[in-house]
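Local shape tokens:
==================
===
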Amino acid sequence: MQTTSKRKTQTGETAASVYKSRFSDCTNIIGKIAKALEAHKGKQMADSRNWGFAGDLDEVRKQLAYALASLGDRSAVDQHGLKY
């Protein structure tokens, strides 16, 4: 829900302050995802015949494509034939 109102919440938060906090949360999560992907890659390299790791990444790829689409870029969902 978008609004251009300058109102504050009951706790005194503004749209700008909530955005700043959520932006920070998102960038922190992206950093954690990058680290988790590297760790996952190491596990796959140690057990390279295990198809489970490829399955894990299929789900991760879908979720990342949907996240990108939520930000206005449908390229990944379109590229992988996902419904959004």
